[in-house]
Structures are given as structure tokens and as C-alpha cells.
Amino acid sequence: MSLVGIWCTLVSIVFYLLSYPFYQRKWLSWAYAKALNVGVRFVLGIKVDVVGRDNMLAGPAVITMNHQSNFDPLLQGPVFPKNAIIIGKKDLLKIPFWGRLFRATNNIMVDRNARGDGEGSKNGAGVDEAITRLQADDCYVWIFPEGTRSHGEGLGQFKRGAFIMAIEAQVPIIPMISKPLHYVLDIPNKIAKGGRHEIKILPSICTVGMTLNDLPELITHCEQLYAKHLAAYLGCAPEDVFA
């Protein structure tokens, strides 16, 4: 794990330097995610198997994935698309090197302590900006619908933002499910077990014709979908998956 920390630092320095000539290029995020995953694969011996690649659609689309720990981004390189933007907290900008990279790769930064995103904001928390980008840029928006890490303790309740974006922009949702990390990592003790980690790309969910009146049903459907697949990994009932 210490070696991976060194690898991530070196990769971050390289991409920090690249962010100056290639400022506001979304492919930097894609290349950065790929480079981080190289360290995980060869240093920790964790290989990511992707199931359901045929379900990946061309953008625009909203990509959702369950969020377990700060280690998640190191495993997502094999499924992270080139033309993707991330919605993240403004606090991330305080992290050396990575903060600069997050801004330079054209992502959306939100202040979760603010009530809205400024004058004229309808949905707040970066949602309006994401909708505009989806409609104008043919990009993917990558978001963790739980809103925060579950720390491996199950699945958190989904926030509204990802689903408002998809409905308002009338773009599909592509659900991705990351297998529980405890099979390959002992996160509390910072020990790598190695092995194979799995990420599933599920069939997309069409939102064409939906309105915000359909929002509660859409969120419930997606929560149940994630709970079903995570329960299969954990060998428990879907209702027991929720943190």
C-alpha cells in the first residue's frame, strides 16, 4: 500500500505538469485514471474484471457507481470513459496536485455547504451545470449517487442529483456496480490481499419521456437494482445491504 501511495504521488506530479499545456481537456481524467490503475494492478496484484461492456453507450449519459472508499478511483480506470466529467466537492481543490488536476480536467466543483449554486440556480449542487454540459457537450457525467463514501459498510441512500440530471437532460443512466472491496483489500488496516475485483456495467435506464414526477420511482428502482447485485456479492438479503 505504501508503494501504491508513492506511485499515485508520482503519477499525480506528472499529470499536474501535463495540466498546464492541456488545461480543460477531459481526456486528462481518462489518462490519469488509467495510469493510477496500473499501480494497483502491478504493485498490489489486483486485476479489475469488467462485466457487461456491451451495455456501455455512447454519451451523453449519466454514469452512477457505488462509492466505498477513497481507494475507489484507483480501480475505476478500466471503465472510466474518455469524454467524462466528474462532480466533486470543492474541498478536493485543497489536495496538492490532485486539486489542480480536478480543476484542469473540466470537472464540476460544488460546495455542499452552500444552499445553491448562485443566482438563477434551480436544482443546486452543480446539477444545473451538469444538465447544460450533458445537453451541449455529448459527455458523460460520472457521479456517486450516495453522495459520500459508505466506508464498506453497505449502500447509502441515493441523493436526488444524479437522477434530476438524467431526467432534465433526457439522457440515459448507466449503472456501474463495484464489488465490495473487502475481498481484495483490508482497508482499515491498509493491507492489500490481491486478487480479482469486479465492476459490472448494467443495462442503461432510459429517461426519455420522464418528468420530475417520476423522480421518486426512478431513485427507488436504482437503489433496489444496486441492492440486488451487492446482496448477491455479499450473500445476504437486498434489504440488509443498506448502511
UniProtKB/TrEMBL annotation:
Pathway: Phospholipid metabolism; CDP-diacylglycerol biosynthesis; CDP-diacylglycerol from sn-glycerol 3-phosphate: step 2/3; Lipid metabolism. Keywords: Acyltransferase, Lipid biosynthesis, Lipid metabolism, Phospholipid biosynthesis, Phospholipid metabolism, Transferase. The keyword Transferase applies. It catalyses: a 1-acyl-sn-glycero-3-phosphate + an acyl-CoA = a 1,2-diacyl-sn-glycero-3-phosphate + CoA. GO terms for molecular function: 1-acylglycerol-3-phosphate O-acyltransferase activity. The keyword Lipid metabolism applies. GO terms for biological process: CDP-diacylglycerol biosynthetic process; phosphatidic acid biosynthetic process. GO terms for cellular component: membrane. Its EC number is 2.3.1.51. It is an enzyme of class 2 (transferase). Residues 61-181 form the Phospholipid/glycerol acyltransferase domain. Pfam families: Acyltransferase (PF01553). It comes from the Bacteria. Belongs to the 1-acyl-sn-glycerol-3-phosphate acyltransferase family. The HXXXXD motif is essential for acyltransferase activity and may constitute the binding site for the phosphate moiety of the glycerol-3-phosphate. This is 1-acyl-sn-glycerol-3-phosphate acyltransferase.
